């Protein structure tokens, strides 16, 4: 191939065959392509993505970031085809990739499924057709552009959810549109309930309310258009109503795919729960997976930007180096969020089903009345007393190294020493 990447929209000049085909042009797919070209510079690599803007950092959506650039580009010598894929069929020793235009690309040496996940719309309430344009989810680039436009004219916005997206997005909207009424709705009156201890959840709610974001316990059962104002009317099962100009739903994501993967033996791969794979990220002979859609044995799905890049690098290496495969182990890949001024960095497994120990600076140390202004939460198994995760709160990035050193080891007996190391400036 040449010194530059080739990008084709539609079916003109789509290659008939390629050594490696990557379905998905996000951070996972582009990271894999980079590794493949580093290890096999002469290999032909075709990347297929269905959005005009490729390599975007979707975590920037909930921050309302001006730039979505993930710092990844199509590697030199690769071809990017902007189109969707409808079918992959195993034929003898090849995989035939069928595009929505009807064109086929033969994959000779390796296929990577790096598809993204999408909102599980089955979890949404019944939404009337008349009001769907004012009810958004936030997963695709198109969703993000619609949100940006609608925020310019919306005086009241509700976000239904209790995870990082709801928390980050509400903070970002309030910061950019200070006069807009912003409300988080969820079945409970707490946030991040599956991730952080209850006391920290209440602290997050407290800070969001302090910034002007309301948090209400409300579950919509029906969504319709208000006949008086044309705005979105949410109605609970008990008949209570809430009205907003714009509603953003943050349902759990699903890795289920409509892509058909037909095998030589006549079977169809079940992709209803993502792409099942081993710890080499291999699904089947010559087929690998990476990113949000990967359902890795022993780990399940992990959805964050750092993991997408990491898993793409592992998959790309293993596709071209079958005799020296790398093992995927995402336990120490950090992820970061920022909610109402709280910087949170997590490594390992952050799960409220685990036991926790909180290590916090005293109020005198940071000269505020915030009891959880700065500190860490250690997550551990009761049975084995092994540390499974660490959450850093308003601590500098260099503390990630210390947090990683705790993972998968016995819970330290001298927690005062751990606290001193993590909280020291």
Q: What's the quick description here?
A:
With 425 residues, this protein is of the alpha/beta class. The protein has helices at 27-39, 141-151, 164-176, 198-210, 305-320, 363-366, 399-406, 415-423, and strands spanning 6-9, 17-23, 45-49, 79-82, 85-91, 94-99, 104-113, 118-119, 126-127, 135-136, 156-160, 181-186, 213-217, 220-225, 232-236, 241-244, 246-249, 253-254, 260-262, 275-277, 282-284, 287-289, 294-296, 335-339, 342-348, 355-360, 375-380, 387-393.
Descriptive overview:
By secondary structure, the chain is α/β, with parallel strands linked by helices. The protein has eight helices and 28 strands. Helix 1 (27-39) runs parallel beside helix 5. It is globular, with a radius of gyration of 23 Å.
Question: Which radius of gyration do the C-alpha atoms yield?
Answer: 23 Å
Number of strands: 28
- Low-confidence runs (pLDDT<50, min 5 residues)? 364-368
Structural class: alpha/beta
Shape: globular
- Amino- and carboxy-terminal Cα gap: 50 Å
- Helix count, DSSP H or I runs of 4 or more residues: 8
What is the topology?
Blueprint: E1 6-9, E2 17-23, H1 27-39, E3 45-49, E4 79-82, E5 85-91, E6 94-99, E7 104-113, E8 118-119, E9 126-127, E10 135-136, H2 141-151, E11 156-160, H3 164-176, E12 181-186, H4 198-210, E13 213-217, E14 220-225, E15 232-236, E16 241-244, E17 246-249, E18 253-254, E19 260-262, E20 275-277, E21 282-284, E22 287-289, E23 294-296, H5 305-320, E24 335-339, E25 342-348, E26 355-360, H6 363-366, E27 375-380, E28 387-393, H7 399-406, H8 415-423
Parallel strand pairs: 1-4, 2-3, 2-7, 3-4, 5-19, 7-22, 9-14, 10-17, 11-12, 11-17, 12-13, 20-23
Antiparallel strand pairs: 5-6, 6-7, 8-18, 14-15, 15-16, 21-22, 24-25, 25-28, 26-27, 27-28
Helix pairs in contact: 1-5
């Amino acid at each position: 191939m040449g010194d530059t990447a080739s990008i084709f929209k539609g079916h003109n000049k789509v290659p008939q065959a390629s050594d490696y085909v990557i379905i998905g042009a996000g951070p996972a797919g582009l990271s894999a392509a980079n590794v493949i070209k580093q290890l096999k510079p002469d290999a032909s690599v075709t990347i297929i993505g269905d959005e005009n803007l490729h390599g975007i950092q979707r975590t920037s959506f909930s921050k309302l970031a001006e730039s979505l650039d993930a710092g990844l580009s199509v590697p030199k010598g690769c071809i990017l085809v902007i189109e969707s894929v409808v079918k992959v069929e195993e034929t003898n020793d090849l995989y035939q990739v069928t595009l929505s235009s009807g064109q086929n690309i033969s994959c000779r040496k390796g296929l990577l499924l790096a598809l993204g996940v999408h909102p599980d719309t089955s979890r949404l309430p019944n939404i009337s057709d008349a009001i769907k344009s004012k009810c958004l989810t936030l997963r695709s680039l198109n969703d993000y552009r619609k949100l940006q436009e609608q925020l310019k004219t919306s005086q009241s916005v509700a976000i239904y959810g209790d995870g990082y997206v709801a928390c980050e997005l509400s903070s970002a909207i309030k910061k950019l549109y200070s006069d807009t009424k912003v409300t988080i709705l969820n079945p409970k009156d707490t946030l991040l309930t599956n991730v952080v201890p209850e006391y920290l959840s209440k602290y997050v709610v407290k800070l969001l309310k302090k910034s002007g974001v309301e948090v209400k316990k409300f579950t919509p059962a029906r969504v319709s258009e208000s006949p008086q104002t044309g705005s979105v009317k949410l109605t609970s099962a008990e008949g209570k109503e809430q009205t907003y100009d714009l509603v953003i739903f943050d349902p759990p994501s699903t890795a289920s795919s409509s892509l058909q993967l037909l095998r030589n033996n006549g079977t169809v791969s079940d992709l209803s729960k993502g792409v099942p794979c081993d710890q080499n990220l291999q699904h089947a002979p010559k087929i690998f997976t990476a990113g949000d859609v990967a359902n890795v044995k022993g780990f399940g799905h992990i959805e964050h930007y750092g993991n997408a890049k990491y898993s793409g690098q592992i998959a790309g290496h293993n596709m071209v180096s079958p005799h020296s495969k790398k093992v995927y182990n995402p336990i120490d890949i950090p992820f970061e969020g920022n909610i109402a001024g709280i910087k949170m960095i997590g490594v390992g497994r952050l799960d409220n089903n685990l036991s926790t120990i909180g290590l916090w600076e005293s109020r005198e140390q940071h000269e505020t009345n915030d009891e959880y202004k700065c500190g860490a939460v250690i997550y551990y198994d009761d049975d084995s007393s092994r540390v499974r995760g660490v959450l850093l709160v308003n601590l500098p990035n260099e503390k990630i190294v210390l947090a990683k050193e705790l993972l998968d080891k016995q819970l330290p007996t001298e927690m005062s020493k751990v606290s001193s190391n993590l909280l020291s400036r």
